[in-house]
């Protein structure tokens, strides 16, 4: 069963999430602080967590920093952040730190589970097509690797899914809402900032000049498209 | 209005303080100038004339006494003429002397007109038996006529002697003296224009010193009216206007202090609501999470326990929605609410809102395609869901939703109407108030009581409005108006 790491300092919330997720068949590990969580993930003998639910307001190291450090180790583990405030600045800040999705407290078990399922689905390998060369950017859809100028680029599942979705139809314009539904599994009211943040992170990894992107281009007023390169 | 305003302002200025002050200055200058001149003119004229009269009288008396000493009565015309000429000799060229003895008269100048010596004067000389004088007008010029009886030597000094029957008269012109005083009046007339100009300038200066502080006060008052309570006026000098300025500043200071206090209180109250809501989130997060367990296991519990479990679960959900709404409201209050605008097909958005809540079959819609606008989809969903939700809960079917674009093309309208009893008349204005509930029996409805207020705030954030009204045929109608191109806050 999927293994989820819950990083939450409030014992009741943590226990509640653990209880619900366990009942629905997940393996669950918990950490009360960011430091504990990072130590747990770095431990080779520790649990093989596939996804983290990360509270932003933690004592000591906050959730933003935990997310940044996790990404800095090269981890592509999906991260769903849990915010108590739901303020715009928190959400933008968290997405920039590398989170894949967010939920606002209080959240029902059903919503949390749906988000976890969607994030895990993005991480599942898809075996659709063969490798493609997009003007120096090699995308191997079977092996799920992206190579640029001989260097393999490590992408978290959300960013990889986004790149696969966009590059599957080069030059086609996708609206943010379409991408939210196809990549994130959100309904039509999903937060389009998720898309913008993921595009920003993806550009930083695959573009030569992220400010003047070649691969993932913005079509103002409509959305994004891949190429044409 | 904008066209007429300058005209009105000019008209008001004409009747303004400046004009009145200048007019008052000019009037004061004119009245005091003319009065002073008139008084001075009269005084100087009298003084000049009296001096002349005295001089003429003295000279005339001397001449008459000298001439009379050598004169004998009865007289004939020749001696009388000689007598007159002797008197006239010392009196100047323009003086006519007339001597009269009974019915004989003789003049120093035979050709001269003797009517200047009036019968009244002759009569007075005769009856008073002393020197008399009279001013006469002759051919447009002023003359002084003097007459004296010539008496025999006095037996008793202090009393006039017996009349000899001989009278002497002299007529002399006053033209030179009057011309001298007329010069004063002419000078005044010539001086009036400069005086008026000077008075105008002084009036303007005085108006300036009065008006500058008044204008400053006006400006400061207008700034206060516009909400800038920090505005103060400079206090200059120690006059009444300075007192007024000082009083104004004091009042402004007091006002600013109490407004600051009110704002701080309001701020604290809002902050408190935000903090409370936030503090409620953590326990609610735990409760919401485990409420599923209660729902899932309720079926296997004894009936009472199951009921209790379901109630706890349901009420936890309500509490979570209330806290969500409170947080949303406090984001509006603190100005933290942001628009995430995206070009949106409104018909599609409304359809999605209805289908997400399974309302599609319960609402009759008129959704013309092709109406797009730059809106925040989530906020529009909140508004439409609130309006339709209220109509479904409180109104009666059929509930209709009509989307239309303004003919001008810069706005759009979503009208949600029902066929229920409509809003109570007093509720029409209050329906957007927080926690307003038209009907006490409705207090246990699904909403938090903030739904309509949040809908209105969402519309306002777009620069739009929501209006509530009753339809003529019964039922309530809520009209949402949104601009199609709100001010670009976040351009994508």
Layout of SSEs?
The complex is a heterodimer of chains A (229) and B (492).
Chain A: E1 3-7, H1 11-23, E2 27-31, H2 34-42, E3 51-55, H3 63-72, E4 79-83, H4 88-96, E5 101-104, H5 109-123, E6 131-134, E7 137-140, E8 145-148, E9 151-153, H6 157-168, E10 173-175, H7 176-184, H8 193-206, E11 216-219, E12 223-226
Parallel strand pairs in A: 1-2, 1-3, 3-4, 4-5
Antiparallel strand pairs in A: 6-7, 7-8, 8-9, 10-12, 11-12
Chain B: H1 4-14, H2 17-69, H3 77-89, E1 96-101, E2 104-107, H4 119-128, E3 132-138, E4 141-151, E5 163-173, H5 175-225, H6 240-297, H7 303-333, E6 342-345, H8 346-356, E7 363-366, E8 372-375, H9 377-394, E9 399-405, E10 411-417, H10 451-461, E11 465-470, E12 476-483
Parallel strand pairs in B: 7-9
Antiparallel strand pairs in B: 1-2, 1-5, 3-4, 4-5, 6-8, 9-10, 10-12, 11-12
Helix pairs in contact in B: 2-3, 2-5, 5-6, 6-7, 7-10, 8-9, 9-10
GO cellular component, one term (chain A): cytosol
Modified residues (4-aspartylphosphate) (chain A): 55
Protein name (chain A): Response regulator transcription factor
The residue-averaged pLDDT of chain B reads 82
Distance between the termini of chain A: 41 Å
**Secondary-structure content class of chain A:** alpha/beta
Which spans of chain A of ≥5 residues are poorly predicted at pLDDT below 50?
none
* CATH homology superfamily of the largest domain in chain A: Response regulator
Overall number of structural domains of chain A: 2
CATH class of the largest domain in chain A: Alpha Beta
Gyration radius of chain B (Cα, Å) is: 54 Å
Shape of chain A: globular
Helical region count of chain A?
8
Assembly state (oligomeric): heterodimer
Strand order of the largest sheet of chain A: 2-1-3-4-5
Describe the structure.
The complex is a heterodimer of chains A (229) and B (492). Chain A has 229 residues and is α/β, with parallel strands linked by helices. Chain A has two domains: 3-123, Rossmann fold, CATH 3.40.50; 153-226, Winged helix-like DNA-binding domain superfamily/Winged helix DNA-binding domain (Arc Repressor Mutant, subunit A). Chain A has helices at 11-23, 34-42, 63-72, 88-96, 109-123, 157-168, 176-184, 193-206, and strands at residues 3-7, 27-31, 51-55, 79-83, 101-104, 131-134, 137-140, 145-148, 151-153, 173-175, 216-219, 223-226. In chain A, the strands form three sheets. A five-stranded parallel β-sheet of chain A has the order 2-1-3-4-5, with helices on both faces. The relative contact order of chain A is 0.11. Chain B is an alpha+beta fold and 492 residues long. The longest helix of chain B has 58 residues, at 240-297. Chain A binds chain B through residues 10, 12-13, 15-17, 19-20, 23, 84-88, 105-110, 112, 176-177, 187-189, 191-193, 196, 218, 220-222, and chain B through 278, 281-293, 296, 317, 320, 323, 327, 331, 336, 338, 340, 342-343, 349, 352, 356, 377-378, 381, 491-492. Chain B: Residues 275-486 form the Histidine kinase domain.
């Amino acid at each position: 069963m999927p293994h989820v790491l819950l990083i939450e300092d409030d014992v009741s919330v943590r226990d509640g999430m653990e209880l619900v997720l366990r009942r629905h068949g997940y393996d669950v590990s918990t950490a009360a602080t960011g430091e504990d969580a990072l130590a747990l993930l770095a431990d080779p003998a520790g649990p093989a967590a596939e996804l983290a639910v990360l509270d932003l307001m933690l004592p000591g190291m906050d959730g933003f920093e935990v997310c940044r450090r996790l990404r800095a180790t090269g981890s592509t583990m999906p991260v769903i952040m849990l915010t108590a405030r739901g303020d715009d600045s928190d959400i933008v800040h968290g997405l920039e730190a590398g989170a894949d999705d967010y939920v606002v407290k209080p959240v029902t078990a059903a919503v949390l589970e749906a988000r976890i399922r969607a994030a895990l689905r993005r991480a599942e390998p898809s075996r659709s097509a063969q490798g493609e060369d997009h003007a120096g950017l090699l995308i191997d859809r079977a092996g799920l690797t992206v190579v640029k100028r001989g260097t393999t680029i490590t992408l978290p599942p959300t960013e990889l899914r986004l790149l696969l979705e966009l590059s599957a139809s080069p030059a086609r314009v996708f609206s943010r809402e379409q991408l939210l539904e196809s990549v994130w599994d959100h309904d039509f009211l999903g937060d389009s900032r998720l898309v913008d943040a993921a595009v920003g992170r993806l550009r930083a990894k695959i573009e030569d000049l992220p400010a003047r992107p070649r691969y993932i281009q913005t079509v103002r007023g409509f959305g994004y498209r891949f190429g044409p390169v | 209005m904008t066209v007429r305003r300058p005209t009105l302002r000019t008209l008001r200025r004409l009747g303004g303080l400046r004009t009145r002050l200048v007019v008052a200055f000019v009037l004061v200058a004119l009245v005091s100038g003319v009065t002073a001149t008139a008084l001075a003119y009269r005084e100087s004229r009298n003084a000049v004339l009296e001096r002349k009269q005295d001089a003429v009288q003295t000279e005339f008396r001397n001449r008459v006494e000298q001439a009379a000493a050598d004169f004998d009565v009865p007289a004939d015309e020749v001696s009388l003429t000689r007598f007159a000429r002797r008197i006239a000799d010392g009196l100047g060229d323009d003086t006519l002397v007339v001597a009269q003895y009974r019915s004989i008269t003789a003049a120093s100048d035979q050709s001269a007109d003797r009517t200047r010596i009036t019968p009244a004067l002759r009569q007075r000389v005769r009856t008073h038996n002393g020197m008399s004088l009279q001013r006469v007008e002759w051919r447009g010029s002023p003359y002084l006529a003097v007459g004296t009886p010539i008496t025999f030597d006095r037996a008793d000094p202090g009393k006039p002697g017996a009349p000899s029957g001989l009278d002497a008269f002299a007529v002399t012109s006053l033209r030179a003296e009057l011309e001298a005083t007329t010069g004063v009046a002419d000078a005044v007339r010539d001086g009036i224009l400069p005086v008026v100009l000077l008075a105008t300038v002084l009036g303007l200066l005085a108006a300036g010193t009065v008006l500058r502080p008044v204008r400053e006060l006006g400006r400061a008052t207008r700034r206060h009216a516009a909400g800038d309570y920090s505005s103060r006026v400079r206090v200059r000098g120690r006059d009444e206007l300075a007192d007024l300025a000082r009083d104004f500043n004091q009042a402004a200071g007091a006002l600013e202090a109490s407004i600051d206090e009110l704002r701080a209180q309001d701020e604290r109250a809002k902050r408190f609501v935000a903090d409370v809501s936030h503090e409620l989130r953590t326990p609610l997060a735990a409760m919401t999470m485990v409420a599923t367990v209660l729902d899932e296991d309720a079926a296997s519990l004894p009936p009472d326990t199951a009921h209790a479990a379901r109630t706890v679960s349901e009420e936890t959900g309500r509490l979570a929605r209330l806290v969500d709404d409170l947080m949303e409201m406090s984001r509006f209050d603190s100005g933290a609410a942001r628009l995430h605008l995206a070009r949106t097909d409104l018909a599609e958005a409304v359809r999605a809102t209805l289908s997400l809540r399974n309302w599609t079959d319960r609402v009759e819609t008129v959704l013309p395609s092709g109406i797009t606008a730059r809106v925040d989809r989530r906020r529009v969903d909140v508004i439409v869901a609130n309006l339709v939700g209220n109509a479904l809960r409180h109104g009666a079917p059929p509930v209709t939703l009509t989307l239309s674009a303004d003919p001008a093309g810069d706005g759009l309208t979503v009208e949600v109407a029902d066929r229920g009893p409509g809003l109570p008349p007093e509720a029409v204005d209050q329906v957007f108030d927080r926690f307003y509930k038209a009907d006490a029996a409705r207090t246990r409805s699904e909403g938090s009581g903030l739904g309509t207020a949040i809908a209105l705030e969402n519309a306002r954030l777009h620069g739009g409005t929501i209006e509530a009204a009753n339809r003529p045929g019964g039922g309530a109608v809520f009209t949402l108006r949104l601009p199609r191109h709100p001010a670009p806050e976040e351009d994508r």
